[in-house]
Queue: 2 jobs
Job 1
Amino acid sequence: MKSRAELQQQEFSNRDLLRAVYRLPDRLEKVPDEARLFARVMRDVLEALPRAEAVAVVRRPPLCPPGELEVQVLEYATRSRPGARSEFRPSRRLVKRALCEQECSCLCAWPSGTAAGSEMTMPNHGPRSGADVTIPHYGQRTGAAPWAVCTPFQDDSQYALYVEGFEEPLGNGLPDPAYLNDCQKFAELVAKITEAALKTVRLRQQIEVAKLAWPKNMRALLNDPGKLEQLLLKPVEAEITILFCDLRGYSRYAEETGANLHTAFAEVQKALDVMSSAVTEKGGIVAGFRGDAVLAFWGWPEPQPDAVARAAGAATRIFERLTGPTFRRKCGLGLTHGTALVGRLGAHDLAIIDLYGPVVNLAFRLEEMTKAFGTGIVISDDIATHVRNADPSGTTFRTRPLGTVVPRGVKNPLPVHELVPREPILGYPSWLTENGFKSNMNLWKAALELFAKGKWAEAHLALDDHFHSDPAAQYLMNFMAKSNKVPPLTWKGVIEEPKKLD
């Protein structure tokens, strides 16, 4: 029995083993998983120790009752009979002594000609009681002395490297102590290198698993933990462009298909994939899913001067996909831009990348307004200004004002707008994408001005004449019709909490 420190003080008499140790780290550097790591180690051990018959990674199961001698073989390889698992049995006593009692490398040797189950001899320790250690029982060589070494890993895995073989005996019938010393030291070094490689493999796997829970455009930061730590230490205020998308009709669909939850969620999953992929393709970050809705943003951790254009592109892409023939289910989107608190937010035991601030709540409220106005995308005045300034001719996006509103939960009135792509969307006819866009826009703005000034009869007539089939115009006409096209005395041109009218 020798500790790792004791073995490190000993010199190799066999330089070939030392060279084999030097080669091992390079061979294990890119092994992808634990099983292949152990397989690689065992091949190298058998190659380096030509008189070894078998090598294995074993452990004493963590739930094994005290006093029991159960040994679990995780992986093994034999020289004489590859793949014959029933032919390989490590010494339970030796594994227990190395792993549980001494917690250090243990070497056992038997005199040549010793039968299985006979007494065990350890160098400098004399004989032990019968059946204390199981002798390798397969492929025994006539006149050869069997030996075995079990070297525990010095981590919390409860693993050990187990090697056994046969050696030509000396005059006392036992193997050469110098050779056994080299085998034990070699096993210790291999175990130490394997420990480090195993930690690397598990860390790599942990990172891959962690990536699944991280926004796609944040995953690269897992390879730069210093920068990631700085980002997550404290949330910061930043200029953020926010997209919120909610699906239409999925709650009822989930209720109707509730008997088969996997089938129901598979449909929702497809839609969520459309939303998240559109965001990540435009360089945004998915902050999270709210049931069948997605919250995403641009402008952090690095500023994005074209954040609004990116968000607008993602929004129109989502609406096009979820409104078209592939899904045949509509969605609503709200886009805002402003200052928000962004970073690691949440309770102490569950903190995720998220946003906080009035501009975030506004995105939710704008999405709600898509139901009232019958539009796909409702945007704030800041977003509309950014879009018009970046694309004044409307070659990529087009916007139109929908009026001044006070969203639910908001005190101050604010203008809101509709956003559409320049190219028509199948299943969503809109005069905003037609050739007469500019002339119609002038008519629309004139009618909207009449509405704001309280000239509802004239506004109603203008909307009915030119935009009869437009959902937003229908909402305004129904809104005015509720009071016979006469505004209330308190009318200030502002719609309070727009909602879908019956």
Job 2
Amino acid sequence: MDANKLRVGYKILIDNQPYIVVSALQRKQARSGSKMISKIKNLITGGTMERTFNGTDNVIEADITNSSATYLYNAGDSYHFMENDTFEQFEFSKEQLGDDIDFLIEDIVVQIMKFNGSPINVELPPTVILKVVETPPGVKGDTASGGGTKPATLDSGVVVTVPLFINIDDEIVINTTTREYKERAKK
């Protein structure tokens, strides 16, 4: 595949290591063609780096398969999962998962990425429902259409910005990609 076709979410091979494209920006230059400036994340180690490709560079797509798994628990810096089809259990380190650990709650179903048959990383669902455990009280007169925001700590430990009308014990929907409040959970 030509480097010009790289998009966010594509999985590619570099030095026999699988990477996912986190950001991609194409710069067109008058005489030397175009360049693709990308930020890529190693799916095995979790490390990120910037990489610039010439438009004519050939990029190899990584052969990544996905399977469904359930998050079980964490023990220190190890996070344990069980594949839903085979009941095989495996673990990832805190470094491998990175910021995704903020949305891991017991029994959440995730997609496990496998490279050469071995689990290498987790793909979270697009949204998760989490409970607000701490937030300042709303001010009288706050409504759903109000424009103010405040911080809220969720049951997974992550802190997000929410509208003023959100209270403790409310369940809210969080976008796992942008890490932002989306809406109140439907009951």
